[in-house]
Write a structure and sequence with these properties.
Elements (H helix, E strand, L loop, with lengths): L2 H13 L24 E3 L5 E2 L8 E2 L5 E8 L4 H11 L13 H8 L3 H13 L3 E4 L6 E7 H8 L3 E6 L2 E6 L4 E3 L4 E5 L8 E2 L13 E2 L1 H7 L12 E7 L5 H11 L7 E6 L12 H14 L5 E7 L4 H12 L7 E4 L1 E4 L10 E2 L3 H13 L3 E5 L26 E2 L7 E10 L7 E6 L6 E7 L30 E4 L2 E4 L8 E5 L3 E4 L2 H17 L12 H11 L4 E2 L23 E2 L1 H9 L19 E2 L3 E4 L7 E3 L2 E4 L9 E8 L5 E11 L7 E12 L2 E9 L5 E11 L2 E9 L1 E5 L1 E11 L11 E13 L6 E6 L5 E3 L7
Parallel strand pairs: 12-26, 13-15, 13-16, 14-15, 16-19, 19-21, 21-25, 30-44
Antiparallel strand pairs: 1-9, 2-18, 3-7, 4-6, 4-10, 5-6, 7-8, 11-17, 17-20, 21-22, 23-24, 26-27, 28-29, 31-34, 32-33, 34-35, 35-41, 36-37, 36-42, 37-38, 38-39, 40-41, 42-43, 42-44
Helix pairs in contact: 2-10, 7-8, 8-11, 9-10, 11-13
Length: 789
């Protein structure tokens, strides 16, 4: 028994996940098949492996809505492999002649007739079909659990393993033999992606944050190219209530242009969009990427409604079939690579094979996806969990899609500057939790051939089929690295998420590369005006050749791998020298399409009286965990119109005022309190005032400090203040806070980024706050001895 199998058996015993529960009891009886499916095939891999080791935890409600994703196999994968080789071979006549989505569909796509037949089949089972724009290889069908079970001949039950409760089909599904069905998602909800950002520490001073401009210098990014003429993509899921407003604040703070943002969502709409506290992730992704390429024409967010395989595949499919889609994007999430059925663990086929089918299309079209390798070292959680842990897990596998040979896997480093102006690199070492390692199942891309440190061969594929020795070279990651920062030292990128906070984890590294590669792409014309194409071919050519394109990381490890000269499983080839790359690849740094950047964000003006920010009327919306509890504009008592600050005549007290569209004491159903928070920055600390209106109209007034803990923003009430509430149209909530309570600012100093948010407090007086209306910072407040009206 090899080391991996020995470890997996030990893991099963330790976790009690693989033994002792009524073997064979999960097979269940099949639901009778419709006559139209008399000729069918079994998808043996579309199950959770080793469910017979678990007892069911309950029956599944037949009325519960279920959305399944049906993947159709492409008709000519061998031809796709051949054209990938030709497109990236400088000696080939097809070199860099990347295909458009229409050309790809014509040459390699699933036929319209096959797609229509698959759609008709789903509809015959009573499912409502949703398609992905432009895609003919993926459909989503929504119906009741009873309809889904009948169509696929399965029985769904609840199970428990490693602290997770999930539903799954014990028997594999049946599908029409006449259709090239690759796999089906949605018959279990075990598979879940998790993001890879580091939670800022509240016990260690955050002293190591770098700005976007710092990284322009430290990664040698040219001053005549900020990504002009390009666009970028970000992939994620769920609700994004503050992503754009926080980006606007970030741009304002660092004097960057306002990048146009487009958000599109794909996948399952039968349940409310996921609201899992991942807002910080999307702030990090958008701000890190645009911070490196602030002059791009725009950034598109391709989001699943949920963090499931089915929804994220829909988002990726939408990107590769988008005729105007960006040529580069980033994803800061992952899940463990496939667990072959032969492995003695609870697991399932994930996104690997269908995901690679989509990402191979991206490579043929000349697109690049940068993906975080993860924050658990040379391992990943065997059972998908909803939190990201800074520790090595028991399962020695890679995270996907970083493990895909059609993605650029990005590891993390700790980067320290010398504090100079401009800054220079003082040190850069591997982050101890950066993901990396070698797959045992996924073959390497052709670009990894000839790298001495990548020498392991795959013994089996991700279906558990043994290769004839020695087998193909197996995929090693990461490919490259960039700053991830560190939770212990507070190192990272300064981002805005309700206040300046630490952006860190390999979730930072991937969007940084997305932005930096966008600059490289902006300077590259390519053979067809479509640039260099999939980045790994250029990156590995440069790495094998040596030279100045990379700063090699040679210090640090990620358990069990060490950073070494050249390519390694901790930092890949290293971190980029962007200018050197541009000159190496294209002999130029200036953009091919030197399009003017978007209109810059207006610089904040420091005012001592008057309105500091305004907000549109009617944009209030009450959402709890993705479920809208009231139509937009139906809670005018929580709809913010404007905000202002002023000093009292004695110069000892700050007065904050928020104007509401129509202020009443009505608290929306399900809430226990309406809160109106006014926030600002001073001397690196975020302060707030709060008006809390309880049932019956009782109002309390507080001030305190804002803390960013885990994925939450917490308002720490430190003092009780005086204030007032004026009801009615254009009603006002006001707090008078002594300057001594909020850092004792003096005349002539500035309180920056003032803004306000209205909330409904849920459940109990100490329950969570659900935002209803949030404003964007506009002007700063100057403390001056001016009598304000």
């Amino acid at each position: 028994m090899d080391r991996r199998r020995s470890l997996l058996v030990s893991l099963c015993i330790a976790a009690a996940a693989c033994g002792g529960a009524n073997p064979g009891s999960q097979q269940g009886s099949r639901t009778p098949r419709p006559l139209s499916l008399a000729t069918s095939v079994t998808l043996d891999r579309a199950v959770v492996h080793h469910l017979d080791a678990l007892a069911p935890a309950g029956t599944f409600d037949p009325a519960q809505p279920i959305t399944v994703g049906v993947v159709l196999a492409h008709p000519n994968p061998a031809g796709e492999d051949a054209i990938v080789q030709a497109l990236y071979d400088p000696t080939s006549a097809q070199y860099q002649q990347f295909l458009t989505p229409d050309e790809y569909a014509s040459s390699f796509g699933v036929s319209a007739a096959t797609f229509a037949a698959a759609e008709s089949w789903l509809q015959s089972g009573g499912l409502a079909v949703t398609t992905v724009p432009g895609a003919t290889d993926y459909l989503l069908g929504t119906g009741s659990a009873a309809q889904v079970q009948a169509l696929f001949g399965v029985t769904l039950s609840w199970y428990q393993a490693a602290g997770r409760t999930f539903y799954a089909n014990a028997a594999p599904p049946l599908v029409p033999a006449s259709l090239p069905v690759f796999t089906v998602f949605g018959l279990n909800d075990l598979d879940r992606f998790r993001s890879f950002h580091v939670t800022p520490s509240t016990s260690v001073p955050v002293t190591g944050l770098l700005t976007p401009q710092n990284l322009w210098w430290l990664y040698d990014q040219p001053s005549n190219n900020f990504g002009n003429g390009q666009t970028m993509a970000i992939f994620g899921w769920g609700v994004t209530p503050n992503t754009v407003s926080n980006l606007r604040a970030f741009e304002q703070i660092y004097g960057l242009p306002q990048v146009p943002i487009t958000i599109n969502r794909y996948g399952d709409t039968s349940t409310p969009d996921t609201s899992d506290g991942a807002d910080l992730e999307w702030d990090l992704d958008t701000q890190a990427s645009t911070g490196m390429s602030p002059d791009v024409l725009g950034e598109k967010l391709y989001f699943g409604h949920h963090n499931t395989d089915a929804d994220l595949l829909a988002a990726l499919a939408a990107w590769v079939n988008d005729k105007q889609g960006p040529m580069q994007g980033s994803a800061s999430f992952g899940e463990c690579e496939n667990v072959p059925q032969a492995e003695p663990v609870i697991g399932t086929d994930g996104l690997e094979d269908p995901g690679n089918q989509v990402l191979r299309q991206a490579v043929i079209e000349g697109r690049t996806l940068f993906v975080s390798t993860g924050d658990t070292g040379g391992s990943c959680p065997i059972i998908p969990v909803d939190t990201n842990g800074l520790s090595t897990q028991l399962y020695p596998a890679l995270n996907y899609p970083a493990a895909s040979p059609y993605a650029v896997a990005v590891g993390g480093t700790i980067l320290n500057s010398d504090g100079g102006n401009p800054p220079q690199r003082l040190s850069e070492t591997a982050w101890e939790f950066t993901g990396g390692g070698n797959s045992l199942f996924i073959p390497a891309g052709g670009y990894q051939q000839g790298v001495p440190a990548i020498a392991a061969h795959c013994a089996e594929d991700d279906q558990g089929n043994l290769f004839t020795p020695p087998g193909p070279l197996c995929r090693g990651i990461p490919d490259v690295a960039a700053m991830s920062g560190d939770a212990v030292t507070g190192n990272g990128l300064a981002i805005y998420s309700g206040g300046i906070t630490q952006g860190a984890g390999t979730s930072l590294s991937a969007p940084l590369w997305n932005g930096m590669w966008t600059r490289v792409a902006a300077a590259a014309k390519g053979k067809r005006g479509m640039g260099l194409g999939f980045a790994n071919y250029s990156l590995y050519t440069a790495g094998k050749r040596g030279g100045g394109d990379f700063f090699d990381i040679v210090v640090g490890n990620n358990q069990p791998y060490s950073a070494l000269p050249g390519w390694d499983n901790v930092s890949g080839w290293g971190v980029p020298d962007v200018t050197a790359m541009m000159l190496d690849f294209d002999g130029r740094t200036s953009p091919v399409h030197n399009v003017a950047p978007p209109v810059p964000a207006a610089a904040p003006v420091a005012v001592s009286c008057g309105t500091l920010f305004t907000d549109p009327a009617g944009d209030d919306v009450y959402v709890v965990e993705g479920q809208t509890l009231g139509a937009q504009g139906t809670d005018p008592q929580l709809d913010i119109l404007s905000g202002s600050m002023s000093l009292t005549p004695d110069g000892l007290t700050l007065r904050t005022r928020v104007v509401l569209r129509n202020l009443t004491t009505t608290i929306p159903t399900g809430g226990v309190e309406n809160d109106y928070n006014f926030v600002w920055q001073f001397n690196g600390q975020e302060y707030f005032t709060q008006v809390a209106i309880e049932p019956g109209g009782l109002a309390n007034f507080y001030d305190g400090q804002v803390l960013h803990v885990s994925l939450e923003t917490r308002f720490q009430q430190l003092h009780v203040d005086s204030g007032s509430v004026t009801l009615g149209a254009n009603g006002v909530v006001e707090v008078d806070v002594p300057l001594a309570n909020i850092g004792a600012p003096a005349l002539g100093q500035i309180l920056s980024q003032p803004a306000a948010t209205s909330y409904v407090r849920e459940g109990a007086l100490a329950g969570p706050l659900e935002p209803v209306d949030t404003t964007t910072p506009q002007d700063d407040f100057l403390l001056a001895s001016v009598a304000c009206p």
